[in-house]
Amino acid sequence: MSFKNLGLSEELLRAISDQGYTEPTPIQSQAIPVVLQKRDIMAGAQTGTGKTAGFTLPILQLLAAHPGKGSRRIRVLILTPTRELAAQVAESVRTYGKHMPVIRSEMVCGGVNINPQIKRLRAGVDILIATPGRLLDHVRQGTANLSSVEILVLDEADRMLDMGFIVDIKKVIAAIPKQRQTLFFSATFSDDIIRLANTILKDPVSIEVGNRNTTGENIKQTVYTVDQKRKRELLSYMIGSNNWKQVLVFTRTKHGANHLCEALQKDGLRSMAIHGNKSQGARTRALADFKEGKIRVLVATDIAARGLDINQLPHVVNFELPNVPQDYVHRIGRTGRAGNEGEAISLVCASERTYLRDIEKLLKVELPKIVFPGYEPTETSSSGTRSPERSGSFRKSYARPQSKNFRSGTRR
């Protein structure tokens, strides 16, 4: 199937061609016709499946086909959990709408000056992309009127609930018309997610790409059992000895991200950290440098990394396992996107075994476990039992490093 078979306008097809795309992804081929029919959607799709274009393309066509009358009012509201994901959606709107009649869009997120946002909102916008907290700030100040919203998109609804936005979401829904089209996207489906969807959707079309709460088949997943105190040393060695050029590393806390980044820098690996305490400008610069190859390692917390769109990212490392198993799915979904191969590595110490079991229970699969030669675990779990002996195998040619400094993949 090609994009021409989906009923999209010539202007949109031209913009798609400009980006070098010829065939839609499964989520796009299923969602686009349904959105054009003005039906509600409940879609389950992992990150990296092309879902953003799956709703921005038909939304642009619907707006162009039925221009608003009089002054511009917010006709489409797209809620996202993070600034990074909001920026990704805003870029998609600009990219695919460039050959169409002028459709104004605006992104409003926290962490930046609100006054420029107010000025642009007062000038009138058709599409508003927002994080819940900052959107409600505008609603309270009277600078965002949601009474004309025709289409509501909840993107990565599971993450918004994980971040505690459920009350904000309900306030937003109460402020928009009941007669509307609602597009609901979530990578995972907990009971809370299903309850929320049931309260806001009307006779939705169910779309599912891949099994719920599963990871992509093109992501190789491996667990390395190692003592907590030796994780950083092993991570540095793996990056350097394998000459990895682009690695996204996850930690559980902001402090942990900063500490690991500093340690990796001392090991000779160009690294930067992104988390909630970093300004939006700093996070944007770090991501740009990472994409351009100026830094090799990007250390991130879950919230900061949500919505990151990095083409052909080869490696994701869980330096610490998340305590919410669904977050594991989101983390490793940064790699193996759009049909590319990816590798997800988890460094697991004795105290994280419960987290690992929860992840495997969610995925309904036992992840392969390997002990790296020279890094055999010695720590015991809280029950006092010794860490498991070596399982699996690794290439015999690898040996324990003699030094901790690596530059350009060369041991020093």
According to CATH, what is the class of the largest domain?
Alpha Beta
In what order do the strands lie side by side in the largest sheet? 3-4-2-5-6-1-7
Number of domains: 2
Structural class, by secondary structure, is alpha/beta
Number of strands: 16
CATH topology call of the largest domain = Rossmann fold
The major β-sheet equals: 7 strands, parallel
What is the terminal-to-terminal distance?
52 Å
Gross morphology is: globular
- The average pLDDT value, as a whole number, equals 86
Oligomer: single chain
CATH superfamily heading of the largest domain: P-loop containing nucleotide triphosphate hydrolases
User: Which percent range describes the beta-strand content?
Assistant: 15-25%
Count of runs of 4 or more consecutive helical residues: 15
Radius of gyration: 23 Å
The name of the CATH architecture of the largest domain is 3-Layer(aba) Sandwich
Low-confidence stretches: 382-412
Describe the structure in your own words:
- By secondary structure, this protein is an alpha/beta fold.
- It has two domains: 3-209, Rossmann fold (3-Layer(aba) Sandwich), CATH 3.40.50; 219-411, Rossmann fold (3-Layer(aba) Sandwich), CATH 3.40.50.
- It is built from 15 helices and 16 strands.
- It has helices at residues 10-18, 26-36, 51-65, 83-96, 114-123, 132-141, 157-162, 166-175, 191-200, 231-241, 254-266, 280-291, 302-305, 325-332, 353-363; strands at 41-45, 76-79, 105-108, 127-130, 151-154, 181-186, 205-209, 219-225, 247-250, 271-274, 297-300, 315-318, 342-348, 369-370, 406-407, 410-411.
- Strands 3-4-2-5-6-1-7 form a seven-stranded parallel β-sheet, sandwiched between helices. The chain has a seven-stranded parallel β-sheet with strand order 10-11-9-12-13-8-14, sandwiched between helices.
- Strand 10 (271-274), helix 12 (280-291) and strand 11 form a beta-alpha-beta unit.
- The radius of gyration is 23 Å and the shape is globular.
- The model is unreliable at 382-412 (pLDDT under 50).
